[in-house]
Amino acid sequence: MSEIVAPPPAPPGEQAIPWLGLTAVLLGTFMSTLTGRLSTFGLTDVRGALHAGFDEGAWITTAFTVAQMLITPIAVWIGSIYGPRRILIVAALEFAFASFLLPFSQNLTTFLALQFLAGLGSGCFIPLTLSFILRNMPPRLWAYGVALYALNLELSLNISASVEGWYVDNLTWHWIFWQNVPLALGMAACLFWGVRSLPPPPRIHTDGYGLMSCGLGLALIYAALDQGNRLDWGSSGLIWGLTLAGIIMIVSFVVHGRTTPDAWLDFKVATAWPLPLLLLMIAILRLTILSTSYLIPYYLGGVRGFRALQVGDTLIWIAAPQLIICPLAAFMLRRSDPRITASLGLCLVGLACMAVAYTLTPSWGSDQFLPSQLMQAVGQSFALSGIVFTGVLNLKPQDALSFGAMLQIARLFGGEAGTSFITTMSRIREQRASNLIGLHLQIGSQDVQQRLAIYGRVLARSSHQPQAAPVILGNLVRTMATTQATIDCFVAVAAFAVFGLFMLLLVLPAPPRTPASHIPFFSRKKPG
């Protein structure tokens, strides 16, 4: 960020209430992650209500997340000038307004426009959360703030299936979006009474080209990743166009930033070791987290026919323990090197994935996933908080906004890359497994005829059509193929966790910090 002079003191009588401000930014993080996942789990119900086909409805989640990516650099720039209070209050009110109107949409075009509007609002939340924690809390409490940040992301990510299933079964799909209205209004109220306002600086530098080229380039690449699996990647001209256009915009942004003295992003912060490596590790960790969050619903829905609420009974065992793990992770961050906490977390994630890969069978239900999910809950929280805190200790407080933007980009891209990778891999591995199993099922062979005869007798005794026996055999083949694909994907996720563990070995210990390094949250003057 370019240097901006410090603002005048706050008006008399206007006092900040730090815990209200912290509540506000954590609410924003919670809503942003929860809404993205709720839209994914509730996509079938939303598509049906809008009379949208599979291909058209696939853009519902893309519109929301692309808007988040587009607004990230702009949100950070405005937050550095006017202070996060103003931008977050406006973003929260706009998010509440869009969320309220979404269920009233009469067609897909209107719904996509409102989804994009909601994404613009929620995209301001996460980039400014970490900067609040670093600049509003004393350094001795940073570990607890980072652990709360990790808790918020993990909790909202894994309760979404249960929440969406409960809404659909007991209320309507409209509440997937209406539940954001009171949360966003509560966030705005906490910001209004908990954070003091500041006047803008007398001189404001605007790097319009840098902001737009960065945001647009990231959004285009993100859209290509989100739609790539559906359109078969390189076979689609749209994916090629989005990817190439995004790369051109990012390259032009980097060139512009390197040659412009007042670029909005401080490239010295972005390239200072070990931040690039830590951001890559955050992306890899988000890849593993979202991959496993996809694989369990993929298996339980495809093999056991579970609905969202039943899938949520499994994922909730990742979310619920976070309330206990959060203070434990903070304690470890304060008492030991955060790299140890991150290493322990990555080891647990890898072991949990391999435990599933070696024992998974088509007879598994929610209960069989419980031990591995408890292990993964601890691992994900430790790994995320440890990696983020390692980055914090290598960061100057005045660079918190730049780090917040980079963290948001790494988080979104890592999650999207993980989802794209695992959906593509599961599809390809299921097709391969189905083909290999089918090679052993020759029409007219004695074994196949015996199996069909057994199915026919069972169907006849239960008053069903014996002619449905081939359908049952086909479903059995699909079940075995889905199970094998799930096993292969869990092995791949474990390999990513091991790769992240080796990358962590390249991170040197963080320099010691002193209380003098702490500066107030809203100070815009860099220490000399």
Structure description:
The protein is an all-alpha fold and 528 residues long. It has 2 domains: 14-207, Growth Hormone, Chain: A; 274-510, MFS general substrate transporter like domains (Growth Hormone, Chain: A). The chain is built from 21 helices and no strands. Helix 1 (18-41) packs antiparallel against helix 10 (180-194), helix 8 runs antiparallel to helix 15 (308-319) and helix 11 (208-228) packs antiparallel against helix 12. The longest helix has 39 residues, at 400-438. It is globular. The protein starts with 17 loop residues before the first helix and ends in a 24-residue tail after the last helix. The relative contact order is 0.13.
Give the averaged pLDDT, no decimals. Answer: 76
- How many structural domains in the coordinates? 2
Residues in helix, %: over 70%
SSE string, helices as H and strands as E: HHHHHHHHHHHHHHHHHHHHH
Shape: globular
| CATH hierarchy class name of the largest domain | Mainly Alpha
Secondary structure blueprint with pairings:
Blueprint: H1 18-41, H2 43-50, H3 54-57, H4 59-82, H5 84-101, H6 108-122, H7 125-136, H8 142-170, H9 175-178, H10 180-194, H11 208-228, H12 237-259, H13 267-271, H14 275-303, H15 308-319, H16 322-335, H17 338-359, H18 366-393, H19 400-438, H20 446-461, H21 469-504
Helix pairs in contact: 1-7, 1-8, 1-10, 4-5, 4-6, 4-11, 4-19, 5-6, 5-10, 7-8, 7-19, 8-15, 8-16, 8-18, 11-12, 11-19, 14-15, 14-18, 14-19, 14-21, 15-18, 16-18, 17-18, 17-21, 19-21, 20-21
